[in-house]
Amino acid sequence: xxxxxxxxxxxxxxxxxxxxxxxxxxxxxxxxxxxxxxxxxxxxxxxxxxxxxxxxxxxxxxxxxxxxxxxxxxxxxxxxxxxxxxxxxxxxxxxxxxxxxxxxxxxxxxxxxxxxxxxxxxxxxxxxxxxxxxxxxxxxxxxxxxxxxxxxxxxxxxxxxxxxxxxxxxxxxxxxxxxxxxxxxxxxxxxxxxxxxxxxxxxxxxxxxxxxxxxxxxxxxxxxxxxxxxxxxxxxxxxxxxxxxxxxxxxxxxxxxxxxxxxxxxxxxxxxx
Length: 273
What we know:
Blueprint: E1 2-8, E2 11-18, E3 34-39, E4 47-54, E5 59-60, E6 69-73, H1 77-82, E7 95-99, E8 104-105, E9 111-113, E10 120-122, E11 124-130, E12 146-153, E13 156-157, H2 158-163, H3 168-172, E14 177-184, H4 189-194, E15 197-202, E16 205-211, H5 219-229, E17 237-239, E18 247-249, E19 254-259, E20 263-271
Parallel strand pairs: 6-17, 8-14, 9-20
Antiparallel strand pairs: 1-2, 1-5, 1-14, 2-3, 3-4, 6-7, 10-13, 10-18, 11-12, 11-17, 12-14, 15-16, 15-19, 19-20
């Protein structure tokens, strides 16, 4: 099931996406797509209302509004290597950092190029959406706390990341965390473990192409590690790392993240006003 969050006529609601059969190069679904509005919210049992709206008549929003986004660095060895870290020496423990809720934007929203950077990069990532309050989650229960998955772009001011010891400004500035287009609840964790494709294009040209089998640590390992230290809330998001191929973004670029079994998240880079 694909659950989208959207606005229409000044109201915000959730709906089940019906009819999507792929995406065009700009990230727009092909074919007739509708949203069946749901009664309630996706973090508890809900009913479909039967009221359907065409997708092109609503504005898609970030699929969730996380209390926090917990991100993982250097979880793809070849990406770590392209940034100068030894391919044969992954981190002893997952590298974790935060992106604030104010960094989150949705599909189609502009990425504002920060005024304090001259080297903005894309990072396509599989995002895990947490479905229930949880802490100290054992490995064999990690799947129980997942609502579903969505696409993410861990937009990074690379020059700022290199010169500052903490990554808060480099990765936490406003608009640095596009999420969407919806939460896919039916993606089989076994399929992720066996490998799904993660792709990033800029102006239609492929920049990144990797598979989840390239992760250094699995999603259950990441959730167990994070929840040793902190409580995750419904709607919180875990970013699982990016494949190799990260590169620069410029004013006017169209960047799209496509993940097999989920969809496409597309955003345009603009000058910060």
